[in-house]
Each structure stands twice: as C-alpha cells, then as structure tokens.
Design brief:
The chain is mostly helical. The chain is 50% helix and 6% strand. The radius of gyration is 25 Å and the shape is flat.
C-alpha cells in the first residue's frame, strides 16, 4: 500500500541503481551516483515549484488589502461565489443565512487560524483528496479535518477523541485502527483518513444525505435518528437541525463556512502562514528493527520533534520492531542517508532502547446495575486483579455510574 505519494519510488530507484552499480567500475559508480543525486535534486525542485503553498502575500493580495484588514462581507458577491462552489460540488453549498453568519464569524475572528490551516494544507490535502477520490466521495470533505482537528494529528479532545479525524477509541477500533501502548493509528494520516472515508461512506449509505452523515459523524447516529423522529420523519439536515444537540447545530454550518473561506481566502485577506513540508516531498520506508527517534535524528541532522511530526502514530517516539514492518516517513532527500546508516543508528545509545511490551489503550467503562468486577473482567478478557490495579481499588466493591479504566483484550472489543 502506498502510504505517501510515490511511496517506495525513490527507494526502488535507489536499489535498482545500486544493483547496476555493483557491476560497474568505480568510474561508472561515480557517474551513477551523480545521476541519482541529480535526479533527486531535480525531483525535489519540481515538487517545491509545483506542489507547495506560497506564503508570499504579494502573490495573493492582488486587491491590496491592508494588513489585518477584514473586508466587509458583500452579500451579493458571497452568493455568487457560493453559486460557483455549489455548481461544481455534490454537496449543497447554496447560500443560506445560517452559513452566512458562520462565514462572517470565521472571516473576522479566525483569519490567523485559517491562514495556518492553509499553511498545513500542502502536507495533508493531497493525501485527503487521493483517498476521497478512491472512495468516490466529495473532495470538499477534506475540509472536515480543519473543523475536527485544525489539521493537527496529535489533537485530542476533552472527550478523548484523537487524531486528524478525531476518532473516539471505540469508533476507531470498530474501523480497524490499532491503538496500544506504542501505536495509535488515529494519529496516522493515511490510516485514519482511510478509516474516516469508510466511516463517512457508511453513514452516507444510511442517510442518503452528506450533511446528515456529517451530523452523525459529530453527534453519533443515535442523536441523528432521535432528531429525525422528533422532526416527524424529516430527512434533511436543515429540517432536523433544531432537534440536534447544540454543538451539532453549528457543526455543518461551520464546515460549509470553512469550505468557502479556504476556497476564497484571498478575497477575505486570509493568506497561508507557517508552511508545512509539502506532501510530495515525503516518502516512506519500511523498518523491521526497534528504532528510537533520537537514534534516527542523530544520523539525519534532524530533531526528534521533526521526525515525530512526520510520524505521529508512534506514541513513545520509537518504532516497535519485529515481527512487523513499520512505516517511517521521511523527506525524500533523507532516504538514502537513512539506508546508509540504519545499522549504525541501532548502535547509538543502545542501552536506552526499551523492551517492547504492548499494552492496549484503556477504555472507559461506566458501571451498570447488576455489574460486578468478575463479569466485567470476563467481558473484556482481563482479570479482577488487573481491574483493581488499573483503578486503585482496594476491594471489589463498585457502584452504579462509576467509571473504570480497562486495558481490554482487543479481541473482546
């Protein structure tokens, strides 16, 4: 599976060139090395020229806005722009007063935030678009991650949702994402995006309406079904909106406002800031050994934080090693250096490398009437002693409504 654009492309070429080079004399080897270096340089230069978001306001500010100026909303212009978006999207992006108020709020109160989102877009949006296209879904759904996580794979809500697409633990596990002491695939851009596409597609198949699917993504299908019943069986988001939880009433209008402002940001004096590395400048290599990020950083002239930013699924800044092969995302130009020094990396402060023992991410269980520790333990494939240890219980007495942390057996979830 291609984890990032051109996954394995650079590595394949590198291995092929080395195979040919072994059969050549030293002069041929130098010539091939030069050719490889030139190819890498040309490719990276092309990516930077064609796939990056520019932060040069002179390129964007063709209307010559003053710094920090918030152009007033022109309702007529706004409606015309939304007509353009609506005509080219399977989503309903026609103007309405509720959306208008959210656009006004974001344009005046969140321009700096949206500028940062534009700066991060070159790292994530090509991946989102590729995955959405694969599942034949509206490409505008890429903006949902702006609303959910502000394009931060390490984002975590007060309720415990995590990652770019803000999956709760149980929903993530139901979508096949791995969560344990070393790995949290909710933070993996590729795997979490595919899981989000599959989940949204499932919700859409249930409701036949993308905005109802988004509402269910935010509030859960139970709340949407309840709102539909209270509305008398209406099947449109706008018809059931007032029966939804308060947060969800603003969720879809906020999404629509973000779609508009990200598409027409320059018209509102919003420009890219704090640019991220573009998606096309990254590649992925498989790693089968236990490898700490500080070991990698010591040989690549990079910080642990830089490596962690590209590999957020590794919770402990360590690749767990055998028996699996794990993806390591690096800038294209660092792949040859990694291959050349991988064995040396393992020898860098080896005493700091821990023994890998996987412990599942804990779930929260609320005690119900009739529950005892023994039945709860059996349900989740653990022991009573373990539940007591995880929750600091001196005895076996529990009360209705009490929350218990349980490191559940994955096969029991």
């Amino acid at each position: 599976m291609n984890y990032w654009l051109f996954n394995g492309g650079l590595l394949g070429l590198f291995v092929a060139v080395l195979g040919v080079a072994n059969a050549q004399d030293s002069q041929d080897l130098r010539r091939l090395d030069t050719a490889l270096t030139d190819w890498e340089t040309n490719w990276i230069n092309w990516c930077e020229a064609n796939a990056c978001m520019s932060a040069d306001t002179a390129l964007w500010n063709i209307r010559e806005f003053d710094l920090n100026q918030y152009p007033p909303l022109d309702s007529a212009q706004l409606k015309l722009r939304l007509e353009v978006l609506d005509a080219t999207s399977p989503l309903d992006l026609a103007w309405n007063p509720i959306m208008h108020s959210r656009i006004a709020f974001y344009a005046s109160k969140r321009p700096i935030h949206l500028g940062r989102m534009l700066g991060r877009s070159s790292l994530y949006f090509p991946l989102f678009e590729e995955m959405l296209d694969r599942y034949d879904m509206p490409l505008e759904l890429k903006y949902l991650a702006v609303v959910e996580s502000a394009l931060n794979p390490n984002a975590r809500s007060h309720a415990g949702a995590s990652g770019l697409w803000q999956f709760m633990y149980t929903t993530a596990r139901a979508q096949g994402l791995r969560i344990d002491s070393y790995i949290d695939e909710r933070r993996d851009p590729v795997k979490s995006t595919e899981a989000a596409c599959q989940f949204l597609q499932k919700l859409y198949s249930n409701y036949g309406d993308w905005y109802l699917a988004l509402a269910a993504y935010n509030a859960g299908p139970g709340n949407v079904n309840k709102a539909i019943r209270r509305s008398g069986g209406k099947k449109s988001y706008w018809e059931i909106r007032h029966f939804l939880p308060r947060e969800t009433r603003n969720y879809v209008p906020a999404f629509m406002a973000v779609v508009y402002l990200m598409e027409f940001h320059a018209e509102h004096n919003i420009f890219p800031a704090e640019l991220q590395m573009p998606y096309t400048s990254l590649d992925t290599i498989g790693v089968r050994t236990i490898l700490r990020f500080d070991q990698i950083a010591a040989h690549l002239n990079k910080s642990e934080e830089e490596i962690a930013a590209l590999n957020p699924m590794y919770r402990m800044k360590i690749i767990p090693g055998p028996p699996e092969q794990w993806p390591l995302v690096l800038p294209l130009q660092d792949i040859p250096t990694f291959l050349a020094f991988q064995d040396s990396m393992i020898l860098h402060k080896p005493a700091l490398t821990p023994k890998i023992v996987f412990v599942p991410e804990p779930i929260s269980y609320r005690v119900k009437g009739g529950d005892v520790l023994g039945t709860i333990a059996d349900r989740y494939g653990v022991s009573v002693r373990q539940i007591r240890e995880w929750n600091g219980l001196k005895g076996t007495v529990i009360r209705v409504g009490q929350k218990l942390r349980i490191h559940a057996d994955p096969s029991k979830l």
